[in-house]
Amino acid sequence: MARDTTDQTPLGTLDDMAAYMDAGSKPKEQFRIGTEHEKFAFFRADNSPVPYFGEASISALLKGMQGKLGWEPIMDGENIIGLGEQHGMGAISIEPGGQFELSGAPVETLHQTCKESNQHLAVLREIAEPLGIRFLGLGGSPKWTLAETPRMPKSRYDIMTRYMPKVGTKGLDMMYRTCTIQVNLDFSSEADMRQKMRVSMKLQSLATALFASSPFTEGKPNGLLSWRGDIWRDTDNQRAGVLPFTFSKDFSFGDYVNWAIDAPMYFVVRDGRYHDCTHVTFRQFMNGALKGEITDWEPQLGDWTNHLSTLFPDVRLKRFLEMRGADGGPWRRICALPAFWVGLLYDDASLAAADAATADWTVEDVIAMRDSVPVQGLKASVAGRPLLDVAREMVGISRQGLKARARLNGDGQDESIFLNTLDEVLAKGTTLADDLLGLYHGRWNGSVEPVFEEYQY
């Protein structure tokens, strides 16, 4: 996330908080696609990580991008920590370990989001090349230890770094050593949100399997196909994972609000300063828990917006839905991930088909799949079915949804072309992580160093 919100509007009742989220509902013709992707910055000379400070650094990349794009700098104290397009049409941010992220503009078609990503990478390479910096698209840092990984000077990350070891064993790895591709999608009503949340929550671990690309840690195989997926199994379970109540036929915005306010907070922002609030839940905050600790202790709308951004369920609900299951990956996957979800969720017939195909999956089935996918990938199963069979069915449904959308590029091709990457995965029945392990044990001669050359942006 590039920028935390400051909105001093007094926070209302729980119903008002639910209504704030419901206000994201929009007519189907106004649905948009917002794609985010992260990548690891490294020095091509020795494959070492890029620090924040210095002539060749993360801050230098941000300043160079600011000069090229003309976007507004986002500051934390005296440090530039991101860039925002002046009209809200995109942002650049940095993750805790220096992972460089584009949060794309809300666009109408996958052709546009793919073009946007390619343009971003082209401009970034132009800035990075003279600095000796390149970028790696994988789900997990394949080489660097946690101690070797740089830390970005961002206040919310300082608070999270202190807090994570108190609530899980893998939170720091999540922050500093993982990358993802995500897509943000709209809903038209509470009922539409409910169906999309139910389907995508059930299928999020399928995306983890399809996009698994994190089989290495500290230079060696880690015994997993998606290390990133495994990390999320014990990061901060009060605010992460599968939310069973979203499977209910009556699931509502209010249900999500009631879950969210019982999660511990990370911070509030007052006068540009971050205050550590990890000792209270948002509900306690609403009941006056910070009175006497900070000035302006009464909850504001900006506090609620920021709190929603610090919750990490497999599918995150704000004024839109965020698909959070996939590892980062090579550039073609930046287009494939939103294609998979747009095809499933933005066509009524495809959404209904995916809902029907997963209707008998229980919460226990979904959690068991989530637990097995990091190790087994597409060899896992769900509700008694091989996951590879489910993957083929769901990609097929997605393809039909994309064809039905009939959004064509200049060559007359519809958006289903962006599923070609997944077709290759399904044809082989193996993940990118499987392929990487094959290279490690074969042509790479037991070294992860070649991954920086062969999978760089």
TrEMBL record:
It is an enzyme of class 6 (ligase). This is Glutamate--cysteine ligase. One of its GO terms (molecular function) is ligase activity. Belongs to the glutamate--cysteine ligase type 2 family. EgtA subfamily. InterPro entries: GCL_bact_plant, GCS2, Gln_synth/guanido_kin_cat_dom, Glut_cys_lig_pln_type. Gene3D superfamilies: 3.30.590.20. Catalyzes the synthesis of gamma-glutamylcysteine (gamma-GC). Homodimer or monomer when oxidized or reduced, respectively. It comes from Rhizobium wuzhouense. NCBIfam families: glu_cys_lig_pln.
